Amino acid sequence: MKKILLITSVILSNFLSAQNFTLPKLPYAYTALEPAIDSVTMRIHYSKHHQAYVTNLNKAIGSSNTKSLTELLNTASTQPAVVRNNAGGHYNHTLFWELLSATPTKTPNPLLLNQINKQFGSLDSLQKVITAAGTSLFGSGWVWLILTPSEELKITTTMNQDNPLMDVVSERGIPLLAIDVWEHAYYLKYQNKRAEYLKNIWNILDWKVVSDNYLRALKK
Ligand code: MN3
Predict the structure, then answer these.
(1) Contacts of 42 (CB under 8 A, 6+ apart)
(2) Does residue 1 surpass a pLDDT of 70?
(3) Which of 50, 101, 115, 205 is 20 to 30 A from 92 via CA?
(4) pLDDT tier for residue 171 given thresholds of 50, 70 and 90
């Protein structure tokens, strides 16, 4: 009974204070993605960087906020920079962790693969274009595979913690795949060799998750 009351009060408090965001549980151990991503990078990236985005977002929006994370991103142009940066940081990293796996599915489902083949020729060429976009992005940012409003796949990049859900970016859509190309994502292991980090990330990128994101995005 005590347990039920506790669960009820947790659900209720989440409902009443929808403005408070929390760090999602990492779906694997810090060591799980080695050797592509080393455990020290994982630990700092998740427990320090991502945690800081959550903490700073909660601090910035205050207790009167009633907007969901998606609503904050969709209205980024009207938000203070601190909200835009930290809401983006929280969303982007949450998606990024979900996309990585120690035992990834290496191919997209038939529907997504068919669309990739139609637009990019093959999965291999799509991955090459994404890698090239991430390698040539100047400064800190993200590379994305999105579904556009016209239901086309598109590779885009954003600066800082911006993302394709925000009304401040030129190419908007629903994110299917995201790769963090901030130096904090790879520098301890790869130093200046960002291209090598991007090459190795395909070994831990779970196409099952990308495919699920695609199916969900098509229904929206
Ligand atoms: Mn990061």
Answers:
(1) 26, 30, 31, 32, 33
(2) no
(3) 115
(4) very high
Find out whether 48 and 54 touch, Cβ atoms under 8 Å: no
Half-sphere exposure of 153 (CA within 13 A, CB side): 25
* Separation of CA 184 and ligand 1 centre (Å): 6
Domain segments of the chain as ranges: 1-8+37-220
Radius of gyration of the chain (CA): 18
Architecture per CATH, 1-8+37-220: 3-Layer(bab) Sandwich (3.55)
> What integer pLDDT is reported at residue 19 of this predicted model?
62
C-alpha of residue 182 to centroid of ligand 1, in Å = 6
How far away, in angstroms, is 118 Cα from ligand 1 center?
Answer: 32
